[in-house]
Write a structure and sequence with these properties.
Length: 284
């Protein structure tokens, strides 16, 4: 686009001609003297070109500039929204970081047949509903659970004995999760720290190798309910054993990274874990 010497009409200074211009400014020579304006913005408000072809070209440049401004505003809006979200997560984590770690802030779930497919696809698990009392039917809350907590998925087939309950997989709660403030009854899974076992791996990971009721060391019963709290050390033992199970290098690295992060945020020395000593081990 070439505008030098093109005639313009300014609502205040009258007729003039273009002396020179660049992407940001344009200089116009009027009878009263040379003036400098923001380009192409001035043509959207106070000044017009006489040459129609030049008018059309400038309009295109104005439209392009407006589109760029809109994109920049949208980018800044998204950036601010992300920053607010990050700050919200940090604000939620602060009180939990200062709080003493509960030794049983993990959760183990009894999954229905095939339910783990939906859990891993959707990236969340439903805690369950309150069964009685004034809050009957409302989503349950797991007050001990937070972003340092893992969710262990287990299943026992109808024809299985309880002692044969298998571990299906495990995931960490997402950053910022707080069981005390969770209202919808869902624990969202961390996008990175998730491990699902194959059927062959699951057969080697029996839940009761790790879980034990200290009052009844050899008792293996899950009387009712979808969930129960789980010891931090037991979860670390399971993660360590999953690392040993994984044969493919990529899967093994993912499991090792999960194990190391879990131990770090739960203040567990992963190199000095005690041997698993669940109810099944008590019977050997």
């Amino acid at each position: 686009m070439y505008l030098v010497d093109k005639e313009v009409i300014h609502e205040t200074f009258g007729k003039g001609s273009v002396v020179n211009y660049n992407d940001n400014y344009i200089k116009i020579d009027f009878e009263s003297g040379a003036k400098k304006f923001v380009f192409p913005d001035v043509f959207a408000k106070y000044m017009t070109l006489v040459d129609q072809k030049a008018v059309n070209l400038v309009k295109m440049k104005i439209q392009k500039r407006e589109e760029e401004k809109k994109k920049e505003k949208l980018r800044l809006r998204k950036e601010k929204a992300l920053e607010r979200e990050r700050q919200h997560i940090l604000d939620q984590k602060k009180p939990m970081q200062s709080r003493k770690i509960n030794p049983k802030q993990q959760a183990v779930f009894w999954c229905e047949a095939g339910e783990e497919d939906k859990i891993f696809t959707d990236g969340r698990i439903f805690i369950g509903e309150v069964k009685s009392g004034k809050n009957k039917g409302q989503p349950r809350r797991l007050a001990r659970m937070n972003w340092k907590s893992g969710c262990l998925l287990t299943r026992r087939e109808p024809n299985m004995l309880e002692k044969d309950r298998r571990i299906l997989g495990v995931f960490m709660a997402e950053e910022g999760f707080n069981g005390q403030t969770c209202k919808d009854g869902y624990i969202l899974a961390h996008p990175e720290y998730r491990l699902r076992l194959s059927e062959q791996e699951s057969d080697k990971m029996l839940f009761w190798n790790y879980y034990m009721n200290k009052s009844f060391p050899t008792r293996m019963t899950w009387n009712s309910g979808r969930q129960r709290y789980f010891d931090n050390i037991w979860m670390a033992q399971i993660l360590q054993d999953i690392v040993s199970l994984k044969k493919k290098p990529g899967e093994r690295e993912d499991a090792q990274r999960f194990f190391e992060r879990f131990c770090k945020i739960n203040h567990i020395n992963g190199s000095k874990l005690p041997e698993a000593n669940g109810a099944l081990m008590q019977m050997r």
